Amino acid sequence: MGNKSSLMLQEQDIRDIQSETGFLPSQIERLYSRFTSLDKGDNGTLSREDFLRIPELAINPLGDRIVHAFFKESEDDHVNFRQFVRVLAHFRPIKRTQDNKLNAREEKLRFAFKMYDLDDDERISREELLAVLHMMVGENISDDQLNSIAERTILEADKDGDQMISFEEFCCALERTDVEQKMSIKFLK
Amino acid sequence: MVVYGRGRAWVCGGLALWVLAGSWCVALATRETATALDSNGSVALHGDGDDGGNNKTCPDETDHHGGGVRLASLRWREVGVYYTITAFVIIAGLAKLLFHHMHWVSSKVPESCVLVILGVALGLLVYFTAHKTTPTDSCHYHVPLPHFTSDKFFFVLLPPIVLESAYSLHDRAFFDNLGTVLVFALVGTIFNIFTIGPTLYGLNALGAMGNISFTFSEGLVFSSLISAVDPVAVLAIFQELGVNKDLYFLVFGESLLNDGVTVVVYNTMQSFMAQEGAVGAEQYALAVAAVAVVVFGGALIGVVFGFITAFITKYTTDVRVVEPLALLALSYLSYLTAELFHFSGIISLIVCGLIQAHYAFQNISQKSYTCVKYFTKMASATSDTVIFMFLGMVLVSDEHLWHTGFVLWTLALCIIFRFIGVFVLTGIMNHYRVKKVGLEEQFIAAYGGLRGAVSFSLVNMLDESMGPRRIFVTTTLVVILFTIFIQGTTIKPLVSLLQIQRASHGRKHLGEEINNTTMDHIMAGVEEILGQHGDFYLRELLVHYNDKYLRKWFLRPTVDSKLKRLFEKIAISEHYAHLYGPVAMIEERVKPLCHTKMPSKRVRSDSFSMSHQDELLLQPRMNMEGEMFEDIESKSATGSDIELRQHHPGPLLPLRQSKVGSIDLQRQDSATTQTQDANVLRKALRNNPYNKTSRMAEAERTERQVLRKALIHSSRSARRTRYRVGVGCVARLHYKYNRNLVGEEDQELEEHLERRRLNARRMTRLASSTRLPPSSAGFTNAGGRRNTMLESHDLTFGAAELVERHNVRRRTMSARPRVGSVLSSHQASALHRPIISCFSSPDPTDSTPASPAILMALQEASDPLSSLPDIRPWGPGSGPPKDQASTPGTTESSLLGHESPPSGFTSIPESQTQEILLSPGSELSGTRDGEEGEMVPLVEQPQSEKGSPSSPEALKGMIV
């Protein structure tokens, strides 16, 4: 349960998280301290408000979507540390030697896919794409053009003719993109 | 046609010799007839001021002009300077031309080496003809050949090169690697300077070199100039290499940005040398501060001038002519200003160029952009040619002083410390990088640390009184030559040997562009949540403030966003595809049959790929890496549609189509029986996975490999027999990464058109192949869907997209009356006799009898061909009848049974297009691509512009 994660990080927890996510213990501790500093209510979980309080997220057009992605697994709109770390683990750089599911290319792509998939139906419709485009570049392009661009993008990626982009189609469209590099960051120790 | 290629090479060579000899004769003639005439003999390349001063020292000059009327006379004194300069530059240009026509040389040796050799030849010529007179004697004539001076180098020759490279630095990959580049440039250079110098001094003190004496400071001065990795040399070699962007920017960026450090350390060491002995700690501290001042001062000036340019170009809508001037002059001014204050001019120019590329390029018109791009490219190409020739020329001199020990030790230390520096620094930087620099890449980065004209200019500036100056000069030259010749020629094989990832060229898709933005935002968001302010966060911040303020201040309100420009580019290229595609298809079918000079069976046998031959032959000349794959994709698509058509025989319009397809098939069959290549192909086709409902990806891959192999093979044999210059396999790479192509993409008109044509054909074929029996007869929604599913599941990205496009179009159009399904009386009547005769007398090797059905299809197909506006420089150009303004539309619909395309792009009335062409603001509404200059409206081809959708409505119409 969400509330169970204790305020102190136990050795055992660290080991579990390490084996699950591949983070180093020092990285986990660092993440934990960030987690607690975000956790204004001191209840061991983060609510949406906790995330949105981060000032820099305000200028990020996808801020809301990114925050939302953290709540994918939680039922009660609270994220415990385990879930928090698991989401972040998607962005670990891929190493050849390590075989970790969480930071695989597909997971990274899925995270990006979720940004567009507003209604969680595993498909990106034209309206969804248009909405996301509005968030990102809305000011610079007129609605008509944005509309055409969205339509055109769907056409590019759509293979089965349902006017939607499924996750498989999404992956295909990004075949040439260096997602492994672009969606990885160096986690501080 | 190797002979032809050689012939051209000789013509170029002859021209070069002629210019050379011509200017030389004039020079010598003048020397004999009017010894006292010329005093400007020693003029510097661009007529420096000090030469003007020399004029007055010659008293007899004025006498000469004081004489009576002459019928003929030489104005050598006034004209000579400019004459020799121009001749010299032209020789340089011709040398370049010659080099590029000698494929057997150009594929193996870098251009810079050839130019240096040519410089040596010129130098020898000077040495043996004009060496006798001393240059100090200004009144005596000596040959006014330009010679190398440091001023000339830094104020005339270097800026264009730096500006051009600054524009090319405006690339995401450069900014992604900026941290590492800066560390290389700053720390790496300093490391080299302070290891090479003291080591040399120590070795000398230990007596490892023999009789040479220099002080510690002198050693440091020398090491500071010899450590400068040279942008010109690096650029010359690396542009030809075509390595991946990360590696390219790593080495190239370093060579550009280390300028500040080199110059500062050089100056500081010289001042230390002046006050020998007493160098206190505070002096060193000052030196460190000086580096910061020089670098940041330069950058600041660059920023200021860059934004001034952006601001000026914001208001040039009605005065387009000043746009290139503003860009070029202001960037030069920023260089000069920085140099004025002893800041780093190079850094200032780079920063200025980057800001111009980011803002001003979006403000200026497409034509101004092309102008700037061409001018900088031309100027920088000329400059670096001249620089390398100068380097060759200075080799021929009496002043050299060879010192084996010193030369060899310097060479060894330069290489050793370069390697150590690069490996250690990348080791450290890799710790912080997400994308590591591999060991092989590190090796190339170290190996690519070429020295060049910067070092030589600096060593030339050394004080004459300095003891070991001449040894330093000679040693510097040796190091430069070693790096240019030995490392320069071996780096290409090494890159292949180490399997360094090459640069990838490819068209961007909209989806990718959108996703790049998304991913940036995501990563920035993650960093924000982590409270970790890394690269992505900084980037996000920059983008945010850029959008909020800078864009408003420095960009016109009309400037389009990147995404929109990309979208328009895609839309336009598709538009052209739909205009020209049918034409291309017609040609492709008519040509091989009409071609009377199709002699060898060999060629005939390749006829499956015949239609693709020019595509494949074009291959080396195109910069598209993915083109080969796309070809194959289109081919497999063709194969698939043959298969498919057997399952779904199209009753109505596809009648014609299936005939067209069957030609393909028959030709294939007759062809495949003959050669092995074709056998492979047939095998590949027989096993074509497209006629199976389910298909493994694995199978497809092997399939493609087989196809690819066969294609490469047949294209090779075809190349042996067919046109184009003698482009050998070796020359391929050379062409692909030819750095002398402006814009590197499709700025070249012919290539542009040809590529557009290929693209068009591919798309049209795909489109036509995926057409279904239309609504009345066989078309049921379920059937259509099934077919679509099958097709689009199998086809690759591009194909699927087209399928869908056309499905959508069909759906939207099905209600309207079909235009092209019935032969118009006009077309039926205008049968083409010559072409028919071609068909009816079948090629002896072609066993296929020309069936009436095929004939009909082809007649029909060939009809619009002749009546089309002559938009195709490649095709048989018959005069375009004026009254058929809408021919492209009819062609498309009649040939392939396309429903008439949505109004907007094919049916722009003549008068309207004329208006668009004539109106001064028309260039504004055309596409503009600030980054690569693709899709330049083809001014030289008014017909092709005629169809271009210059209005937004037209654009919109295309994307139905």
Structure description:
The complex is a heterodimer of chains A (189) and B (960). Chain A has 189 residues and is mainly α. Chain A has helices spanning 11-21, 25-38, 48-52, 63-70, 81-88, 105-116, 126-137, 143-157, 167-173, 179-182; strands at 45-46, 79-80, 123-124, 165-166. In chain A, the strands form two sheets. Chain A has a two-stranded antiparallel sheet. In chain A, 36% of the residues are buried. Mean pLDDT of chain A is 82; it is low at 1-6. With 960 residues, chain B is mainly alpha-helical. In chain B, α7 crosses α15 and α21 (510-530) crosses α22. The longest helix of chain B has 33 residues, at 281-313. The radius of gyration of chain B is 32 Å and the shape is globular. In chain B, 47% of the residues are buried. The chains are: A mainly alpha (189), B mainly alpha (960). At the A-B interface, α2, α4, α6, α7 and α8 of A face α21, α22, α23, α32 and α33 of B.
Poorly predicted sequence stretches spanning 5 or more consecutive residues of chain B: 1-6, 30-65, 133-142, 591-697, 718-734, 743-748, 772-799, 812-855, 857-960
Number of strands of chain A: 4
Report Rg of chain A.
18 Å
Chain oligomer state: heterodimer
**Portion of residues within helices of chain B:** 55-70%
**Radius of gyration of chain B, rounded?**
32 Å
Summed over residues and divided by their number, the pLDDT of chain B gives a mean of 66
Distance between the termini of chain B: 46 Å
The secondary structure category of chain B is: mainly alpha
Cα(first) to Cα(last) distance of chain A is: 28 Å
Region (Disordered) (chain B): 862-960
Main location (chain B): membrane
Biased composition (Polar residues) (chain B): 884-894, 903-916, 941-951
Subcellular location (chain B): Membrane
